[in-house]
Amino acid sequence: MRILEKHPNTLTQTPSTWRLTQSQERIGSKTVTMTILDLWQPILLGTFFAWIASALIHMALKYHNSDYKQLANEDEVGSALRNGNPSLGVHSVPYCVDMEQMKDESMQRKFSEGPVAFVTVFANGMPNMGKLIGQQVAYFLLGCTMVAYCSTLALEPGDEYMKVFRFVGTISFLTFGWALIPFSIWYGHLWSTAARYLLDALIYGALVAGSFAWLWPVAG
User: Fold this and answer.
1) pTM for the whole thing?
2) Interatomic CA distance for residues 65 and 59, integer angstroms
């Protein structure tokens, strides 16, 4: 508890000024002001480790192969889609964007008879792996940069390894995984698929946390 007698001027200060004085005293006790630029090394190292882990998950462990299933009449479905010449992006079957439409008997019959599906249409041709890999690296880099920003708000130079690891690991897990949950709630992704992606996020989070904790700025 702060004793007012230690600070005579406090009695004449407004509450907001008092809080500012406390903040100045706290900041004044630090010898280093930390910014994202001070964390460029863990940002890059975390990005590198996360990308390597992603490559190993998809190329060696391959547990995401079960995320997708083959249609028994793949050729027929492919032919039907080509005949419709759909635009790129996500399409829904049956197409219904207004809750009022669901009251219509014909729409209800479409849902009852099925199939009920979301179809994602890509550009024709083999995937451009160079472009996709570049985007994945950028995803990790931007994610690690946001993690670094949050860390500068909550942590200080010289904080112990495990304190940094716990905070950065939690933020990294949320950054790389939590936003995937709605795809299982609303878009039909199996919960087992969501669990595998959350496992990915846990791995990325641990690697990024280790990178930040290892290269965390020292005090002074």
Assistant:
1) 0.83
2) 10
**How many CB atoms neighbour CB 216 within 10 A?**
24
* Cβ(216)–Cβ(42) below 8 Å: yes
Query: Residue 194: CB partners within 8 Å, gap ≥ 6?
Result: 180, 181, 183, 184
Instruction: Using alpha carbons, select from 53, 96, 101, 68 the residue that is nearest to residue 203.
Output: 53
pLDDT higher than threshold 70 for residue 23: no
Structural Rg of the chain based on CA atoms = 26
117-121 and 89-93: which strand pairing?
Answer: antiparallel
